Amino acid sequence: MSFNDRRNDRDNALRPGPWGARAEAVQANPEAKPAGRLSQRARTNLFKTACFVLIVLGTLIQAFKDLARPEAWAYWKDLYVSPSMASSVLTETDLGALGQRRSALVISGPIGAASASWFRDRLTEAHLVPGDLVLLSSPGGDLQQAVIMGEVIRARGLTTAVGAIDRSGRIKPSYCASACVLVYAGGQKRLGVEDSKLGVHRFVTRGSEKDPVAETQRTAGQVLGYMTKMGVSSTVVEAMSATSDIRWLGANEALAMNLITDPLPAR
């Protein structure tokens, strides 16, 4: 072997191959990470992202379960799709025998699953002030919604009456039954319109997973507490408990119960 051949072999041995190049690169950049491995920061970010996705999925699943309940669909339908109640606003309603004219919100129809929210919105739009009138005409409906509506009426110092509006803009007789009576009871003053009717009956709660008797007793206690708070005699609850059918109260009977506080004289 010649001197040149031995020199070439030595140079080839010293020339870095694939492994030598990797070692040389690591020496040039000691902080470089091996290919195919995530940094600690990347693993932390990936963990946080996974946790966030799981939380969002859990929330969505719970929301879907909530919306899948029949009462949830009933609420959204009543609030946004087809409200069970209708309303109109009268800025100068003639109260006849009282000799004054007040603004009024006239509401009618069954009390639905979202009627309390709907009612608040209508009151806001009507700009009623204390002493203005809420005129009711309803067969009743959701008990809990009725209680909330009555509480809102009392908090705003509004007057209630049972009736409708004729073409001339004057009050005509109508009826208010079942849960509607609780809305009526919320009035700071409760006008008695001649020939209008107030109807009461026993509230019965039925449920497949609860004791119906216990739930009915709890509901009766809630109604009694609400009526007492509104200044109505407990005898109205006794009248409710006496029958499962609608019982129409006479004007004098409703007055004795303090359900009617201001009867309007016959016109």
What does this protein look like?
It contains 10 helices and 11 strands. It has 267 residues and is of the alpha/beta class. It has a domain at 85-263: 2-enoyl-CoA Hydratase, Chain A, domain 1 (Alpha-Beta Complex). A 6-stranded mixed β-sheet has the order 1-2-3-4-8-11. Strands 7-9-10 form a 3-stranded mixed β-sheet. Strands 5-6 form a two-stranded antiparallel ribbon. Helix 5 (115-126) links the parallel strand 2 and strand 3 (133-137). It is elongated. 27% of the residues are buried.
How are the SSEs ordered, and which strands pair?
Layout: H1 3-14, H2 18-28, H3 40-68, H4 70-81, E1 86-94, E2 101-108, H5 115-126, E3 133-137, H6 143-155, E4 159-162, E5 164-165, E6 171-172, E7 175-177, H7 180-185, E8 189-192, E9 197-200, H8 212-229, H9 235-241, E10 247-249, H10 251-256, E11 262-263
Parallel strand pairs: 2-3, 3-4, 4-8, 7-9, 8-11
Antiparallel strand pairs: 1-2, 5-6, 9-10
Helix pairs in contact: 5-6
Short structural summary:
By secondary structure, the chain is an alpha/beta fold. The protein is 47% helix and 17% strand.
Q: What key attributes describe this structure?
A:
17% strand, alpha/beta, six-stranded mixed beta sheet, elongated, 2-enoyl-CoA Hydratase, Chain A, domain 1, 10 helices, three-stranded mixed beta sheet, 267 residues, single chain
Main beta sheet: 6 strands, mixed
What overall geometry do the principal axes of the alpha carbons give? elongated
Radius of gyration: 37 Å
Report the portion of residues in β strands: 15-25%
CATH superfamily of the domain at 85-263: 2-enoyl-CoA Hydratase, Chain A, domain 1
User: CATH top level of the domain at 85-263?
Assistant: Alpha Beta
What is the architecture of the domain at 85-263 at the second tier of CATH? Alpha-Beta Complex
Tell me the helix content.
40-55%
Class derived from helix and strand content: alpha/beta
Along the chain, the helix and strand elements come as HHHHEEHEHEEEEHEEHHEHE
- Would you report the number of β strands? 11
Ranges where pLDDT stays below 50 over 5 or more residues in a row are 19-23
**Numbering strands along the chain, what is their spatial order in the largest sheet?**
1-2-3-4-8-11
The CATH topology name of the domain at 85-263 reads 2-enoyl-CoA Hydratase, Chain A, domain 1
What is the residue-averaged pLDDT? Answer: 81
**Structure annotation, total helices:** 10
End-to-end gap: 138 Å
